[in-house]
Amino acid sequence: MTEQIVILDFGSQYTQVIARRVRECRVYSTILPYHTPAAELKRLQPRGLILSGGPASVYQPGAPLPDAGIFQLGVPVLGICYGVQLLGQFLGGKVEPGDKREYGKGTLTLTDRTCPLFRGLPVTMQVWNSHGDKLTRLPTGFRPVARTENSEYAAIADERRRFYGIQFHPEVAHTPRGREVLANFVHGICGCGRTWTMRRFVERAVGEIRQQVGRERVILGLSGGVDSSVAAALLHRAVGDQLTCIFVNNGLLRAREPEMVREVFGRHFHIRLHYANAAALFLRRLRGVTQPERKRKIIGRTFIEVFEDALRHVGPARFLAQGTLYPDVIESVPIGGNPAALIKSHHNVGGLPGRMKFALVEPLRCLFKDEVRELGRELGLPEEIVWRQPFPGPGLAVRIIGEVTRRRLEILRQADAIVIEEMKAAGWYRKIWQSFAVLLPVKSVGVMGDERTYEYTIALRAVESQDGMTADWVRLPYPLLERLAARIINEVRGVNRCVFDITSKPPGTIEWE
Ligand code: XMP
Questions:
Q1: How far apart are CA 137 and CA 75, in angstroms?
Q2: Which end of the chain is more exposed for a tag (fewer CB within 10 A), N or C?
Q3: 477-494 b/e with 16+ CB inside 10 Å = b?
């Protein structure tokens, strides 16, 4: 069994970040709901448990509480924030509302330098706090090891049972040395090695896929995005020609996208690729349609039709492969104050209709996005694919306001290509979540040479985000914005004005639609 750390989720917005930090230590981590029975945890044989933070107060009725048996498993436990209050509540301490909420940056001072959780760390360090409750009496067997301005018990330890509690959040960037605290826990205290590497993942995944698929055929819908591309490369490594990929050109793709997909997967990887060019059909169906929801419906329905038709061409298969990632699999714990969990994955619902009977193969189910990119590199996919920014299924149709026409698509494609090129050249492309152009059907007057022009407007959008649920606009440097606008207006016929979108999400969305 893979060596792993289990994180029990009490509803913190940072639970997934904890899991990623643990994996960055090359230790596999799994997130489970807070109420997971101790017996089930025992079966999983984790090397350690982490109790996440959460928005509740342990003493309130209805607060999320774990199975008390988790403290009898004999494995090390690290309680973070709400997790410390749980140690207090379950092991004989006392938790009360603090007179001051501790929120934001603070300074942690070690009062006991022998604690293995802080091995190699300085006596004082910056930490990030976010809590109102406070431990006012230590749980039995614990001793204090660090304090902050407001908490006498900012870090506590029971070395005998290997139970540790910290009030601050080691997983966030505002605790600069937090990674070392987590590394001390997983390596030093839990004794985990550095076993979680993409090379080993490939070996294991290949074996598992072969076992699941046997001699049957697998179909995969390839979009050219990171997830489906990496899934395709992994499946091909596992089952070779039993895999057939279907790539639908809906006419709403970026410049050179269909060519690139055929080049990389067909000619380079020699993957069986069925290319369905349905651009004309999609465009015909979208004629005269201006309402965003109707556009989406038409595109979704047409996609299924084309995909079904492609399936008839490629012949019967037992399995359908999908590039589902871990964040879509984690059972979310909707505890007050975590709206992200509730509005998750509103996109791409529906998918293929139930009448298509396939068994699913989802080889990326346990991976985070950054791990998928690492896996893509390991499998030899080109950087151009591995580092792609997210691109919506309905493609450029959601980036053209109003009717989608051939000419508008051409304009937007050219503008988009310039954005990608300049963002890459300036070193910004990989650093941010998304950067793209939007075509507004607003014409305004301009001058070019001695002539007056009357042309479209391009809006530039650049956002930072962790998961697409919330986002902030990126403060791109003026010289870069200047270059983008100048090139788009000079090189793309049909555009004479460029604007920059400074809306964050919420209240805006990332795409304009
Ligand atoms: P919004 O515009 O809702 O977008 O703020 C959030 C993120 O989702 C992407 N997006 C989509 N992805 N199919 C997808 O696969 C879709 O229909 C879709 N619509 C939006 C968007 O690019 C952003 O990253």
A1: 24
A2: N
A3: eeebbeebbebbbeebeb
Instruction: Quick: pLDDT tens for 146-181.
Output: 999 888 999 999 999 999 999 999 999 899 999 999
Catalytic residue check, 259: no
Spell out the residues 6+ positions from residue 96 whose beta carbon is closer than 8 angstroms to its own: 59, 133, 134, 136
Q: Which residues in the chain are classed under CATH 3.40.50.880?
A: 4-189
Which atom of ligand 1 is nearest to 505's Cα?
5
Query: What is the assigned CATH class of domain 405-500?
Result: alpha beta
Using an 8 Å Cβ cutoff, are 147 and 153 in contact? yes
169 is catalytic: yes
The top-level CATH class assigned to 198-386 is alpha beta
Residue nearest to atom 21 of ligand 1 (CA): 392
Which top CATH class is 4-189?
alpha beta
pLDDT tens-digit series, residues 90-112: 999 999 998 777 788 999 999 99
Ligand 1 center–CA 53 separation, angstroms: 28
Any idea how long the chain is? Answer: 513
- 128, burial (CB in 10 Å: exposed 0-12, middle 13-18, buried 19+): buried
- Catalytic option among 115, 169, 180, 192: 169
Q: Is 392's C-beta closer than 6 angstroms to any atom of ligand 1?
A: yes
Question: Is the beta carbon of 424 within 6 A of some atom in ligand 1?
Answer: no
Q: How far is the CA of 347 from the centre of ligand 1 (A)?
A: 6
